[in-house]
């Protein structure tokens, strides 16, 4: 795990340069300038855009300001997806900075979850952590932790504190020496083009013969049609890196 | 509770129970259907029903009404006025569309209830509005029930916002009920058991005839239940 620490740091500190522009139909008292921000890949839009909101509120009347939501080229952006995922899914082929449109009206009820406070983001984040541990450890590790440990995970994310976060998260990434790995690998495969938002299935890290499964094995098992050579040109990315179908061990890099 | 096994529900078993459930629903025209996802063959139970609800208009408008009955009401309240106006209380009836889905969680190995409601014009109800329509006797259960919270989440197959009863403590209450029913050697449909407990809390009721399903199944010699470990 110590060898991987550089990779863990690179993932944690990944940033996407973004330009926020107010939607043209929003009613303003003065012209709204765009706002530039480096967004952390591993965080959530509504957690890191307080400054964006304040910037645009300055040129708007209080009564025109409702729940903020974000859109890219007509697609409402799901704040509950990590920022890096949103970028890879919708904008990976376009030039930087990433151009996001900011809205305060006409909240798209059919597309987006509401996010009335930071508590909602925390609850969502912790639910993901818990579900991942249900898969990795039958929830034993997360349930044995104290509330303050859970809080430290969240505060680490919220305040961008790598060491604080990983002091707790490393326990969620360990397994007893007698086991060769987690019970199941927590993963999701997202596609922008389907109604179904993601594919998630039970997948063991060790094959019946005792050898370790590779990422290629997982993809073949979970979306066989995509891995077919005749199957067309679907490409797989993680953290904006194209994955080749080769035999690398599955790295549990993501916090989940 | 000591000595109880964990009764995790395998996905194959989930589908079998759902199949039984659908059959009975069709017999009594209870409106449940099985929907499949064409890509991966995942499926879920689905039910949509409409309810007409008496609704009092918000307090500020209510005051205007009771002061002067002749005062014209705002446009949205003009339709569906009933005789209670005479007593100085204004009410409108509204049609609400409820949707309930039962999905399988492979992470927790339990069924999960997803639900949402909206008015006919598409405006969704908030969780508070849904809870207000739940019968008073179930309001207490909301506080004490074997669930952590109801939260808004993305439906894993449709990608749209739904309310969800969090599944991580389902196993606790199911375990205690399943153990006692096995003492009497009864086939128990996990879905019926679970849904009849959690459903009413969110406005979903199962007619009593579902309970007879266990009775019919007892006569089948090939449906012996075994604890799942």
Automatic annotation (TrEMBL), chain A:
Q: Which GO terms describe its molecular function?
A: Atg8-family ligase activity
Gene3D superfamilies named in the record: 3.10.20.620, Autophagy protein Apg5, helix rich domain, Phosphatidylinositol 3-kinase Catalytic Subunit, Chain A, domain 1
- Does Membrane show up as a keyword for this record? yes
Q: Which residues form the Autophagy protein ATG5 UblB domain?
A: 184-244
Q: What is its main location?
A: membrane
Q: Name one GO biological process term.
A: piecemeal microautophagy of the nucleus
Cellular location of this protein? Preautophagosomal structure membrane
Q: How does it sit in the membrane?
A: Peripheral membrane protein
**GO cellular component terms, semicolon-separated:** Atg12-Atg5-Atg16 complex; autophagosome; mitochondria-associated endoplasmic reticulum membrane contact site; phagophore; phagophore assembly site membrane
Q: Where is the Autophagy protein ATG5 UblA domain?
A: 11-104
What are the Autophagy protein ATG5 alpha-helical bundle region domain coordinates in residue numbering? 119-174
Keyword annotations for this protein, in alphabetical order, are: Autophagy, Isopeptide bond, Membrane, Ubl conjugation
Q: Which family does it belong to?
A: Belongs to the ATG5 family.
Purpose of the protein? May play an important role in the apoptotic process, possibly within the modified cytoskeleton. Its expression is a relatively late event in the apoptotic process, occurring downstream of caspase activity. Plays a crucial role in IFN-gamma-induced autophagic cell death by interacting with FADD.
What is known about its subunit structure?
Forms a conjugate with ATG12. Part of the minor complex composed of 4 sets of ATG12-ATG5 and ATG16L1 (400 kDa); this complex interacts with ATG3 leading to disruption of ATG7 interaction and promotion of ATG8-like proteins lipidation. Forms an 800-kDa complex composed of ATG12-ATG5 and ATG16L2. The ATG12-ATG5 conjugate interacts with RAB33A; this interaction is bridged by ATG16L1 and promotes ATG12-ATG5-ATG16L1 complex recruitment to phagophores. Interacts with TECPR1; the interaction is direct and does not take place when ATG16L1 is associated with the ATG5-ATG12 conjugate.
Q: What is this protein called?
A: Autophagy protein 5
**Which species is this record about?**
Melopsittacus undulatus (Budgerigar)
Automatic annotation (TrEMBL), chain B:
GO terms, biological process? autophagosome assembly; autophagy of mitochondrion; protein modification by small protein conjugation; protein transport
Job of this protein = E2-like enzyme involved in autophagy. Acts as an E2-like enzyme that catalyzes the conjugation of ATG12 to ATG5. ATG12 conjugation to ATG5 is required for autophagy. Likely serves as an ATG5-recognition molecule. Not involved in ATG12 conjugation to ATG3. Plays a role in adenovirus-mediated cell lysis.
Which InterPro entries does the UniProt entry name for this protein?
Atg3/Atg10
Question: Which Gene Ontology molecular function entries are recorded, alphabetically?
Answer: Atg12 conjugating enzyme activity
Which keywords accompany this UniProt record?
Autophagy, Cytoplasm, Protein transport, Transferase, Transport, Ubl conjugation pathway
Q: What Gene3D superfamilies does this protein's entry cite?
A: 3.30.1460.50
User: What main location does UniProt list?
Assistant: cytoplasm
Output the PANTHER family linked to this UniProt entry. UBIQUITIN-LIKE-CONJUGATING ENZYME ATG10
Return the protein name.
Answer: Ubiquitin-like-conjugating enzyme ATG10
Classification lineage: Eukaryota, Metazoa, Chordata, Craniata, Vertebrata
Q: Where in the cell is it found?
A: Cytoplasm
Q: Where are the transmembrane segments?
A: none
An annotated GO cellular component: cytosol
Q: Respond yes or no to whether keyword Cytoplasm is given for this record.
A: yes
Family under the similarity heading? Belongs to the ATG10 family.
Which source organism?
A: Melopsittacus undulatus (Budgerigar)
């Amino acid at each position: 795990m110590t060898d991987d620490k550089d990779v863990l740091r690179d993932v944690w500190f990944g940033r996407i340069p973004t330009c926020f522009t107010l939607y043209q139909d929003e009613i303003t008292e003065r012209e709204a300038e765009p706002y530039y921000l480096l967004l952390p890949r591993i965080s959530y839009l509504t957690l890191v855009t307080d400054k964006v909101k304040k910037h645009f509120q300055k040129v708007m009347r209080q009564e025109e300001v409702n729940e903020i939501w974000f859109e890219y080229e007509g697609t409402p952006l799901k704040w509950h997806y990590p920022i890096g995922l949103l970028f890879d899914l919708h904008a990976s082929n376009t030039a930087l900075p990433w151009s996001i449109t900011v809205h305060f009206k006409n909240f798209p009820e059919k597309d987006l979850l509401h996010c009335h406070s930071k508590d909602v983001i925390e609850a969502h984040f912790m639910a993901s952590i818990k579900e991942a541990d249900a898969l990795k450890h039958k929830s034993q590790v997360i349930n044995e932790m104290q509330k303050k440990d859970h809080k430290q995970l969240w505060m680490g994310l919220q305040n961008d504190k790598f060491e604080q976060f990983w002091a707790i998260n490393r326990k969620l990434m360990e397994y007893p020496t007698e086991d060769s790995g987690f019970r199941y690998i927590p993963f999701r495969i997202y596609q922008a083009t389907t109604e179904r938002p993601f594919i998630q299935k039970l997948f063991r890290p060790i094959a019946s013969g005792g050898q370790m499964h590779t990422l290629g094995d997982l993809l073949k098992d979970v979306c066989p049609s995509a891995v077919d050579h005749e199957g067309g040109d679907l490409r797989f990315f993680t953290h904006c890196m194209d994955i080749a179908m080769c035999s690398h061990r599955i790295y549990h890099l993501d916090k989940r | 509770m000591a000595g109880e096994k964990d009764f995790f529900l395998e996905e194959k078993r989930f589908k079998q129970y759902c199949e039984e459930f659908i059959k009975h629903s069709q017999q009594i025209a209870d409106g449940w259907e099985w929907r499949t996802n064409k890509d991966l063959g995942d499926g879920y139970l689905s039910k949509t029903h409409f309810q007409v609800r008496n609704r009092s208009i918000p307090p500020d408008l209510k005051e205007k009404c009771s002061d002067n009955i002749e005062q014209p009401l705002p446009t949205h309240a003009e339709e569906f006025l009933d005789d209670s106006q005479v007593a100085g209380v204004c009410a409108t009836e509204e049609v609400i569309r409820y949707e309930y889905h039962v999905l399988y969680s492979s992470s927790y190995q339990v069924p999960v209830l997803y639900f949402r409601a909206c008015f006919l014009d598409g405006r969704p109800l908030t969780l508070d509005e849904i809870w207000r329509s739940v019968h008073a006797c179930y309001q207490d259960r909301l506080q004490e029930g074997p669930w952590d919270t109801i939260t808004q989440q993305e439906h894993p197959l449709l990608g749209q916002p739904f309310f969800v009863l969090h599944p991580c403590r389902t196993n606790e209450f199911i375990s205690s009920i399943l153990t006692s029913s096995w003492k009497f050697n009864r086939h128990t449909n996990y879905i019926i058991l679970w849904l009849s407990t959690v459903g009413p809390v969110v406005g979903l009721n199962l007619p009593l005839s579902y309970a007879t399903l266990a009775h019919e199944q007892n006569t089948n010699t090939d449906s012996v239940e075994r604890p799942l470990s």
